[in-house]
Design brief:
By secondary structure, the protein is mainly α. The protein is globular and about 30 Å long.
Length: about 80
């Protein structure tokens, strides 16, 4: 959650609210479709993973993104 919070704070510099698992694009005025792409690229880079288009389309909030990150980063 700490890395995600840093990404949100850096990318959405006008957002000063809490960064919680329920945070979504609806909560952040700057979070449009272009910023969503930038956000996801930064997350992928920070965690060394890649999301498919299908996965990205299913994320409704930060919590769902975190759950997907845990799945992708789990030891195989």
């Amino acid at each position: 959650m700490e890395r995600i919070t840093r990404i949100v704070r850096d990318l959405f510099d006008e957002y000063h609210g809490p960064v919680t698992p329920t945070l979504s694009a609806r909560d952040v005025a700057q979070w449009d479709s272009l910023m969503n792409v930038q956000f996801l690229v930064l997350v992928e880079q920070a965690f060394g993973i890649r999301f498919s288009s299908r996965e990205v389309g299913q994320f409704r909030n930060i919590g769902e993104l975190l759950a997907a990150l845990k799945t992708k980063r789990a030891p195989k």
